[in-house]
Amino acid sequence: MIAARILIVEDDRIVARDIQHQLSRMGHVIVGMSASGEDAVRLACSQQPDLVLMDIRLEGEMDGIEAARRIRDAHRIPIIFLTAYANDEVVHRASLTEPFGYLLKPFEEPQMRTVIQMALYKHASDTRLRLSERRYAATLASIRDGVILCDRDGRVDFMNRAAETMTGWTAPEAAGQPLSAVFVAVDEETHEPLEDFSALVLRSGDFAPPERQSRLLPRGGDGAGHPPAGIGPAGLVAGLVVEERCSAIIDDDGALVGSILVFRDLTQRRQIAEALRTAQADLAHIGRLTMMGELAAAVAHEVNQPLMAIVTNAGTCLRHLSLPRPDLDKTRVVVERIVRDAQRAGDVVRSIRALARRTPVDPGWVDMSALIADTLELVRAELRRARISVETDLQAGPPWVHGDRVQLQQLILNLVMNAIEAMAATSTATSTAAAVGAEPAERRLRIVTGGADGWIRVRVEDSGPGIAEADVDAIFRALYTTKPDGLGMGLSISRSIVELHGGRLTASPGTPGGSVFEFVLPVSPGGQ
Questions:
Q1: pLDDT at position 271, please?
Q2: Which ranges constitute the DSSP H helices of 256-404?
């Protein structure tokens, strides 16, 4: 049996002494005895007993019921009423004080023992429950997600501080209001009103519905959330972008008794993501400009060749046309060459402009094999200057990649230029070998594409000095470089581009030597 500190409030001193002896035999401690309501309230405050045995009829103006009410309101101490009167009016008044039991005089010790044990057990359970509720309330109040509890009719029972901030309603204002008035959500794209999640859950009994994203409109000036209040300047819809989750609340019998709506503000997260994308685009643009500087000589050569051919062919045309009887068929062939060379020079200039220009991401369907071929044309002079042979095995036609063509071309260009620079680093060793009559090492660039299971795989191999196992991950870190004049940004930007397109980029040592860079991207089998 639980030993307790008990206050006895009884105006009959003989009965009070008898109760005292019985409680002592049970092992309880008597902290005080009182015959009046006023004195009982004072003793309860000073002694803080575990339990009060309270007679309903007492000396003085304050009866036991009023004393019990004051003790309960101030200290939440459990009370058992002692009375010889059990009429309906007395029981009704006493019940309003939420007593933990009744003992009708006269009573026996076993009866009192049982009532006291039950009262102490119930009070301990209630205390644990209140503590648990406080913990949950403190947890809900402190989390950043908005939380709204609704009853089975879809009316607000509770909302935490985050929900107050996001909806513009205070908890007292929202209490009893339909959720559809407090939480007004519209579709992000169409701005059409959405049915509140709680109503969907309560109607379907779905305990784990999918999440959805919506725009939570601000509370209107009339004190309610209405779509017109969310219309900003130029017709733009104001409010927060939120992610909602809603679940049903069921009781022990499996009956649906309410719902809980949890939502979080995605606005700041989206702003951060947009800022990150902008920073990545700026970094990629800087990388392209840097690469253009490295390719300046090769680009000049690629443009100069068709221009010189145009000059030569134009001179030929003039000579043909100056003849007494011009050969128009030959002249037409030469003019066609001029047009072809002009188009070739224009293609090179357009490619350079696209790479150098700072433009927003413009996703579309891209044929990766054709893009690789175009990129190799751009660096053809650089490959020839470095005496690098190129081998390609490019998959024709679909699959296509949905992405930004400029960024994907920058990715290919980064990997090809990385291979060219790696193999150019062996030039000294090659020259030395040639000087002593040895066979110089072959410089070879190989690019292979293939696709399977919804992915396209692009593999870039070179015959350069290779990658140490310890550097396989480090080479993708920003500012990491093994080149004396390198910035250490090319491969870092390349990986960012691949990940932005939902793929992954890896590096590994080649066999028997060199390096292998491989990336995979999700594809669309149908292309455009």
A1: 75
A2: 267-294, 296-322, 328-356, 368-378, 380-385
What φ, ψ does residue 398 adopt, rounded to 5°? -60, 155
**Closest among 73, 71, 218 to 81, alpha carbons compared:** 71
pLDDT of residue 180: 87
Q: Which CATH number fits domain 143-265: 3.30.450.20, 3.40.50.10860, 3.40.50.2000, 3.40.50.2300?
A: 3.30.450.20
Residues 6 or more apart whose CB falls under 8 angstroms from that of 330 comprise 320
Residues of the chain with CATH 3.40.50.2300: 5-139
Whole-number Å distance between alpha carbons of 165 and 171: 10
Tokens linked to 432: 């030395």
CATH 3.30.450.20 segments of the chain: 143-265
pLDDT above 70 for 313? yes
- Judge whether 401 and 368 are in contact, CB under 8 Å: yes
- Looking up tokens 């019921």, which residue turns up? 65
The answer to whether residues 9 and 38 touch, using CB atoms and an 8 Å cutoff, is no
The predicted-structure confidence for 135-153, as pLDDT tens digits, reads as follows 877 777 778 889 999 998 8
Asked if the model's pLDDT at residue 230 lies above 70, the reply is: no
Q: Determine phi and psi for 160, rounding to 5 degrees.
A: -90, 180
Task: Please confirm whether the linkage preceding 440 is cis (ω < 30° from 0).
Answer: no
pTM comes to: 0.46
Provide the CATH topology of domain 5-139: Rossmann fold (3.40.50)
- At residue 34, φ and ψ (nearest 5 deg) are -140, 150
**Residue ranges of the chain that CATH labels 3.30.565.10:** 381-528
- 3-state secondary structure at position 39: helix
Q: Among 235-239, 472-476, 496-500, name the most confident range.
A: 496-500
Mean pLDDT of the chain: 79
The domain made up of 381-528 has a fold known as Heat Shock Protein 90 (3.30.565)
Neighbours of 318 (CB within 10 A): 11
**Residue 423 near residue 446 (C-beta atoms within 8 A):** no
Q: What is the pLDDT of residues 22-34, one digit of tens each?
A: 999 999 999 999 9
Alpha carbon distances (Å) from 179 to 113, 138, 159, 389: 49, 22, 11, 69
CA dist., res. 65 & res. 303, Å (int): 103
